[in-house]
Design brief:
Layout (H helix, E strand, L loop, with lengths): L7 H24 L3 E7 L10 E6 L2 H9 L2 H15 L7 H4 E5 H8 L3 H12 L8
Parallel strand pairs: 2-3
Antiparallel strand pairs: 1-2
Helix pairs in contact: 1-3
Length: about 130
């Protein structure tokens, strides 16, 4: 998939989102068992409504265990707080944060995260694109 160049304004927004999510990621790495990384993508013509954050765990079992302990709520809250610090207000943060696993990606997409994440975009808006 070819990335289009972001305008200076959108690049600045994306950089701020990256900073916020890096802090949230580092925090969650220490607090949530099984959590390994996160990524985001957005269509900046429909931002922040189009923002999707995917939190990745090693296995589906780890996602189930994390949800049983309500750590999903903690992670979502941490992400929201960090986004607010950089001026990004997401109306329904729970719809914007998804949980996925390396195990599921390996089983269904041969470990190709770009393919797996692209599927989520189609449901959102046909012209949305993935942004790291």
């Amino acid at each position: 998939m070819m990335k289009m160049k972001l305008s200076k304004t959108n690049q600045k927004i994306d950089n701020n989102v990256c900073k916020a999510l890096t802090i949230a990621c580092e925090s969650s790495l220490h607090e949530v068992a099984g959590f390994v990384w996160l990524t985001h993508r957005a269509n900046y013509t429909n931002f922040p409504a189009s923002l999707v954050i995917t939190c990745v765990f090693n296995t589906d079992e780890e996602i189930d265990a994390m949800k049983a302990l309500q750590h999903d709520e903690t992670m979502i809250s941490t992400i929201q707080k960090q986004l607010l610090k950089v001026g990004v207000v997401v109306k329904n943060i729970k719809k914007s944060v998804r949980f996925d696993s390396e195990q599921a990606c390996q089983a269904k997409h041969d470990g190709q995260w770009s393919d797996r994440l692209a599927l989520s975009i189609v449901k959102q808006k046909p012209n949305a694109r993935r942004v790291h």
